[in-house]
Amino acid sequence: MLLINCPYCGPRPEAEFANGGQAHIARPADPMSLTDDEWAAYLYMRDNTKGLHHERWRHANGCGRFFNASRDTTTDVIKRTYRMGERPEAEHQGAKP
Amino acid sequence: MTDTYRVRRGDGAESRNAVHFTFEGKSYQGLAGDTLASALIANGVHLVGRSFKYHRPRGFVSAGSEEPNALVGVGATQSRYTPNLLATQVEIYEGLVAESQNRWPSLETDAGFLNEYFSAFLPAGFYYKTFMWPRMAWKKLYEPVIRRMAGLGRAPAEPDADRYTQVFAHCDVLIVGAGPAGLAAALEASNSDATVILCDEQAEMGGSLLSDRSASIDGMQAADWARAALDELRKRPNVKLMSRTTAFGWYPHNFVGLNERVTDHLANPAANQPRERLWQVRAKEVVLAAGAIERPLVFTDNDRPGIMLADAARTYVNRYGVVPGKQVVVFTACDSAYRAALDLKAAGAKIQVIVDLRKSASGHWVDKARAEGIKVRSDSIVRGTSGRLRVKSAQISNAQGGDAETVACDLILMSAGFTPSVHLFSQSRGKLSYSEELRAYVPGESVERERSVGACKGLFALDSVIESGAKGGRDAAAKAGFPPRGERSYTVSARSVGADAFIGSVMADHQAEKRAWVDFQNDVTAKDVRLATREGFRSIEHVKRYTTTGMATDQGKLSNMNALGVVSKQIDVAVPKVGLTTFRPPYTPTTFGSFAGQSRGDLFDPVRKTSIHPWAEAQGAQFEDVGVWKRAWYFPQVGEDMHAAVARECKATRESVGIFDASTLGKIEIVGKDAAEFMNRMYTNAWTKLEPGRLRYGVMLREDGFIMDDGVVGRMATDRFHVTTTTGGAARVLSMMEDYLQTEWPDLEVWLTSTTEQWSVIALQGPNARRVLEPLVEGIDLSADAMPHMSVRQGRICGVPTRLFRVSFTGELGFEVNVPAGYGRAVWEAIFAAGKSYGITPYGTETMHVLRAEKGYIIVGQETDGTVTPDDAGLGWAVGKAKRDFVGKRSLSRPALVREDRKQLVGLLTTDPKAVLEEGAQIVLDPTHPIPVPMIGHVTSAYWSATLNRSIALALVRGGRSRMGEELSIPMPDGVIKAKVVDSILFDPKGERLNA
Amino acid sequence: MLSPAIMRSNALSPMRSSGTTAASATTLSILPDAAKLVFRGKTEAIEAAGAHFGVKPSLEACRFAAVGGRSVYWLGPDEWLFQAVNEDPIEVFGGMSVALQAQACSLVDVSHRSDGIAVAGPTAALVLNHGCPLDLSLKAFPVGMCTRTVLGKASLLLSRSEEHVFHVDVWRSFAPYVWQFLDEARSLS
Amino acid sequence: MQKFSALSLLRAGLTGHVGWQRQWRSPEPKPGYDVIIVGGGGHGLATAYYLASRYGVKNVAVLEKGWIGGGNTGRNTTIIRSNYLFDESAGIYEHALKLWEGLSQELNYNVMYSPRGVLMLAHNIHDVQSFKRHVHANRLNGIDNEWLSPEECKEFCPPLNVGGSMRYPILGGALQRRGGTARHDAVAWGYARAADALGVDIIENCEVTGIRRAPTGEVVGVDTTRGSINAKRIGVVAAGNTSTVMNMAGVRLPLESFPLQALVSEPVKPIFPCVVMSNTIHAYISQSDKGEMVIGAGTDVYTSYTQRGGLHIVNHTLDAICELVPAFRRLRMLRNWGGLVDVTPDRSPIVAKTPVSGLYVNCGWGTGGFKATPGSGEVFASTIAKDEPNKINAPFTIERFRDGAVIDEAAAAAVAH
Ligand SMILES: Cc1cc2nc3c(=O)[nH]c(=O)nc-3n(C[C@H](O)[C@H](O)[C@H](O)COP(=O)(O)OP(=O)(O)OC[C@H]3O[C@@H](n4cnc5c(N)ncnc54)[C@H](O)[C@@H]3O)c2cc1C
Ligand SMILES: NC(=O)c1ccc[n+]([C@@H]2O[C@H](COP(=O)([O-])OP(=O)(O)OC[C@H]3O[C@@H](n4cnc5c(N)ncnc54)[C@H](O)[C@@H]3O)[C@@H](O)[C@H]2O)c1
Ligand SMILES: Cc1cc2nc3c(=O)[nH]c(=O)nc-3n(C[C@H](O)[C@H](O)[C@H](O)COP(=O)(O)O)c2cc1C
Ligand SMILES: [Zn+2]
């Protein structure tokens, strides 16, 4: 059970959270203007990063907020959590394993 | 029987109570504090089990949790019977019943021993090479035979009578292992404000100190020092001591699983004791002080009862006060066996000879042995043994070969050095490094917040063990934010036994080696390991899987390094290059019940009930599980089956009035100035024009365009919606809404609150519904004009506040009365009383399903299955065509979603009105088509309709709406049923009744 | 015409009898009914709500504030629970709604959504830790703290009113589960 | 290839088993191959075997970064069945099941395919409806699957807690008698040995680190930890690592990799005669021929390449097992491990050509691809050899996600494995 630092409540056990998949995938502003390929990319394509990965969690059994976490998928070490709307730090952006 | 092998215990505590137990049906006496192993040894019993494959007679190899041989079944009754327990860990209590395993008819004469004679034909992996012909014989003949041979103990056959619990715990410092290293760590770490947990798998804490007669610490005998240290720790409020508690697994983020055995050692456990308790500990810092495990030597016939690890024998003598043998041959590659020999000698055993593998034996311990008159042979090996049910002699020769001398004995001690217990360290994903000196892996770089100390780090001299423990304890407390208040010093007086070690087979010439066991329990010999490498299984992972070495219940604690040694030598690749198999949880086998904890029966999952549930129960309702909810399914009256009850309930509702508990529906209150805009985005429908006081049926899609949920939505005010969802969909819908709101549209001023459980919902349906309600309602005009179909009003009913919906899921004039849940049952009963004169009839979900099916209303999850679009379900009308966007809209125009031949919802009327279709039945055009028959759809709902006096069905059929009137076939195992495609609305298509 | 005596029922009423049977240092009891409102909205609005309610809501995460029988629990950065023990939900809701009319917020009456359990005694934290994965030491979970969390397979609102007294607020249909779970835990600890 | 038989075993036994040869060679990589298969799991090895045995492509190498069979092939609970709902899935899994039935003989390697029956339990009315839908569809597709009443379930699998104190009582079950298990390791080894005998190079400890493409786009070879190797065609069968490998060719796939756990109990005498699956309470259990209970656990909710997972997943698995068989509460867990499963949005596999010429992919088998091993290998071999999918794997394209032609068994029935 991971220990996840909710930006609002502090470190809490994974049991209180729901995972929301890869972060920073904005819903297109005008979906109808997208090609089928572009829409499919939004719906389904994920980086599936091996290494530092930015993902969404919701403190579902806590404060209820969504936030982001940067986790290394090769170790499960969470480097940082940050609020919705914030960007991952530059040093964290690269997805090198 | 009396215990003739009993000697004085090292600590002089001789006033131990006698304890009686049975093994193999025979009664024995032991002393309190004995394990089953020490008690049997006290009685001269060494034969305790049979090996897995060859059924070789086996005795005790160890004195601890690494034991591969001495597996027993324990328990007087089936509901408390446990197989595969280790006699070296089972503590005896008055009345304990234990039996051996994997033998028939008896332990002494075991028919399975026949395998032994065929052993030449049963090498590693033999089963992959044979049993293939004739083809069916594997299933019918070979496999059943092999299966019969499988397994060790027998599984308990009756439900477990015990209970288990789990506890989450937190601490600043968790220390695993309470030997000298762990005790020192605990003393230091707890000399601060840090909270400390110290656990040890054994009944008594102290680890190796309990077996030590020669060492002293702070002027005290080792075991006394341990007890004094424990006394001191016990006094500290920040320390929790947990004996009989195994740290079995390391999970990410310093989360460690401990399993506490609470009652297994008690004859009469108290009622409030669970059998085991699973502790899930989040530790800021961990100190691993798990010690080291002695390694066997691999030599021919090294598996006979009476062949034992040297340090285990030392533990039996010094700690338990029993001598495992009187005529002893010692075979060793290191000094520590000398210490064991001396301790056994002191206890009265005769040491025939110490056979030392090393070229030359010298130093303190060797000198001491010689000085005590013990014969020492260096550069020599034990090359074979004899004795069927107990070892009788050892054949000893020079290491390089030559003539063998036979020495009589009843005990052979062996030691190839010690393997540090790096299990938890490795589970934490710390990197291991190979120590050439120890011939073992030791902890390298850490990944988690932990450190290893003492023998599990590869330190074996007691002073350095204690020093590392103390330092580890201080360091852990400091890292956790609690620097200790001081340092204490320890004076240790102990002679080191050095770190010499050996791995692999002792025979210089492998051709001369007969069978020498590497993995005792799984009967893997050095030959098997070599065969595997010859056959190309060179990765150690392949060797493991091909030979099964290290896969037994001891998980290679004794065998892995020796297997590695054999492989390394055979393929001439350095040990670290050969690699190492992965350490996995649990450290020792751990009870299923403990993992399950309290989650059983009614606590397996919450049983959610509505506030009206007890009333339904009292009426004799049958219930069905819908998600975690219990819902009233139907209300049988005396003599009725489900069909009769449902027919009656349907009729009563259509003819007069029925009452239904709809409380499980999900409810969400959506409030804020942008509420309508938010609804527009979430649902396919358009909401802007819905006026306060009106209801609308809403459909919600997933972003991929398929129906996710539906429900009736009431607009309570311009900025307030009362949304309902399906019973199972409530949580899903709310979290999807929150997701969009928080992450896509944070600018919207709208907030969500779950009100599922705030409201009880009482559906009153049927032509007399209004008449029943009217007298109970205050402040609401129920007339058709004032309150048309699909409207909502607020007022009071029976004096309590209500949101009264005029809505119908039955096609009848209907209301859904929402009242605060605490009043649900009372209001229900009041309505029921008021309805008595109209023959009001309670109905359950089954009737609800029939009534709505007659009307062609879909049920999400029944007519839809996650692959159905609104158009497929005939809900195209609910999709706001003019809307620029809503969740799922873009997906609806994907090529596969606009195909003409998609499955569409239609009604089906069987040609034979009496024939009720089966839900899930497949629909075809040509039932005579050879298999595979092309299928064009399936029946989603099918019932007997009492109203229509015939069967009805809904179905999803390819291009269904263009097949109106067509006759289709539904091939069933016992014949083809014909049915005609019709509109999905089968009853009152104009909706006159619900508008009444 | 109207039924004169409609009594509010509590999902835990059937549990009442099993209150303190087991020999345990921890007791379970049912908390009195209360008016409960979920407030969600912007910071200005929460201040106005607090002012009207007479209890200043905590802006600090996971804390509750109480004055007499009234308390306000922080549930999330835009969400608070207003609770008034033994008060009429309709009145409390009505008053608050008026006070918040001009505010950007949502107020929803959830008085009947949940029931309350008091877990009291020197081993209360240990009993709760049978299913709740939080650190319930005084240091990590001081008096005055509240948070939504889980217990076994249920979600709930947990708060600590005294060193040895915790309150559990749990949705009605989960309440019997939570009660039974805690009852078994205390009887086995 | 040295023939395996009772006789050869007997003969070898008399001579101390010194004469056994390597089951597969350990060749150095050649400069180039007609086809390179990336990934030495069951699917990759089967692909190589069928390329050589059925499609005449023998200049083939299988590149494996570790040891063959060390991925999910070596970590799965070995449940085999074919009673899937949709025609597309039923087609590919039944194709596999038919191959399983003769696989030991075909490979001359006893893979211990054991058709002991797979019983899927229904615990609520929705399950019953859904399973019956399967039974009917399977019957018309020529796939055996029958409905059992609770009593019949009990008769077929006596340890089950039927009518007992279960939170979700067993309301019946769907039984596929031809379903069962096979020895996972033997599948990898058997295919490797048979492929090797046909000339396929199986190269272990050889991690693919790059996919080389010509300026015109098509693949020309791979970079590996053992050097560069040319290839005319490349088939990627890397399960959980597929995204990583395909990124090397610039191809993005709709995949996410999750930890999936399994565990075994200590071995006990035979007591559990078949495979039992319960999707509703998440329990998957059978007893191996060695005696352990082999139990499938759940996936963690987050993507991870660590091949482990959380303790709470194991807790939930075992509470379900103990509900199904309360006597098993006293059994003990011997070992618990994790695999790395690659999951597509519709949880059905992709076995297809890719936008890159000469590059093929076989992935997305998620939590349930062991059962497909022979069929998947066979159709993938055909696809590579003919440069076009055959009828069976034609629906399992990448493009289905663009078009919306998803094959969503799980949504249709909430059925995994
Ligand atoms: C716990 C668990 C239980 C399961 N239970 C079942 C079940 O009961 N029934 C069922 O049908 N299925 C089950 N599955 C799923 C099944 O195991 C897989 O679908 C199947 O084994 C996949 O086989 P594969 O050959 O595609 O993958 P793998 O066996 O994983 O093979 C892929 C190989 O590719 C290699 N590789 C990766 N990257 C590279 C690279 N860059 N270069 C070289 N090589 C590389 C890997 O090392 C690996 O050996 C289960 C899976 C797990 C994890
Ligand atoms: N060559 C040698 O002579 C040699 C070799 C090894 C050890 N030793 C001696 O052994 C001692 C080492 O001390 P130490 O404290 O490091 O080890 P120790 O063996 O004294 O104590 C380790 C303790 O950890 C417990 N333990 C192990 N794994 C556990 C788990 N997973 N969960 C719970 N408990 C677990 C054991 O029951 C044991 O009590 C010293 O006295 C040293 O001299 C000597
Ligand atoms: C069907 C099956 C049965 C297994 N049986 C055993 C067993 O009896 N003993 C054992 O130690 N491991 C057993 N394992 C687990 C392996 O030891 C190992 O954990 C698994 O292959 C994953 O590899 P890893 O743990 O080395 O990462 C079994 C694995 C599978 C897939
Ligand atoms: Zn939070």
UniProtKB/TrEMBL annotation, chain A:
Q: Which Pfam families match?
A: SoxD
UniProt-listed GO biological process terms? tetrahydrofolate metabolic process
Q: Which domain of life is it from?
A: Bacteria
Name the Gene Ontology molecular function terms of this record: sarcosine oxidase activity
The record ties this protein, via InterPro entries, to: SoxD, SoxD_sf
The name this protein carries in UniProt is: Sarcosine oxidase subunit delta
Automatic annotation (TrEMBL), chain B:
GO terms in the biological process aspect are: tetrahydrofolate metabolic process
Signal sequence annotation:
none
Domain Aminomethyltransferase C-terminal stretches: 903-988
For this UniProt record, give its keywords in alphabetical order, as a comma-separated list.
Oxidoreductase
Domain SoxA A3, which positions?
514-597
InterPro entries the record matches: 2Fe-2S-bd_N, BFD-like_2Fe2S-bd_dom_sf, FAD/NAD-bd_sf, FAD/NAD-binding_dom, GcvT/YgfZ/DmdA, GcvT/YgfZ_C, GcvT_C, GCVT_N
Q: Which GO terms describe its molecular function?
A: sarcosine oxidase activity
Q: Superkingdom of this entry's organism? A: Bacteria
Q: Which SUPFAM superfamilies match?
A: Aminomethyltransferase beta-barrel domain, FAD/NAD(P)-binding domain, Folate-binding domain
FAD/NAD(P)-binding domain residues are: 172-428
- Ranges for domain GCVT N-terminal come to 612-883
| PANTHER family reported for this sequence | AMINOMETHYLTRANSFERASE, AMINOMETHYLTRANSFERASE, MITOCHONDRIAL
Q: Which NCBIfam families match?
A: soxA
**Family of this protein:** Belongs to the GcvT family.
Q: What is this protein called?
A: Sarcosine oxidase subunit alpha
Look up and give the organism this protein is from. Answer: Tardiphaga robiniae
From TrEMBL, chain D:
Q: Entry's InterPro entries?
A: FAD-dep_OxRdtase (IPR006076), FAD/NAD-bd_sf (IPR036188), Rhodanese-like_dom (IPR001763), SoxB (IPR006278)
Report whether Oxidoreductase shows up as a keyword of the record. Answer: yes
The record's section on PROSITE patterns has: RHODANESE_3 (PS50206)
User: Reaction catalysed by this chain?
Assistant: sarcosine + (6S)-5,6,7,8-tetrahydrofolate + O2 = (6R)-5,10-methylene-5,6,7,8-tetrahydrofolate + glycine + H2O2; sarcosine + O2 + H2O = formaldehyde + glycine + H2O2
Which UniProt keywords are given for this protein, alphabetically ordered?
Answer: Cytoplasm, FAD, Flavoprotein, FMN, Nucleotide-binding, Oxidoreductase
Q: Name one GO molecular function term.
A: sarcosine oxidase activity
Mention one GO biological process in which this protein takes part, according to its record: tetrahydrofolate metabolic process
**SUPFAM superfamilies attached here?**
FAD-linked reductases, C-terminal domain, FAD/NAD(P)-binding domain
Q: Which cofactor does it need?
A: FAD; FMN
Q: Where in the cell is it found?
A: Cytoplasm
Enzyme class, broadest EC rank: oxidoreductase
- The Enzyme Commission number assigned here is 1.5.3.24
| Listed Pfam families | DAO
A Gene Ontology term for the protein's cellular component? cytoplasm
Is-annotated flag, keyword Cytoplasm? yes
Q: Which NCBIfam families match?
A: soxB (TIGR01373)
For this chain, the family text in UniProt reads:
Belongs to the SoxB family.
| Name of protein | Sarcosine oxidase subunit beta
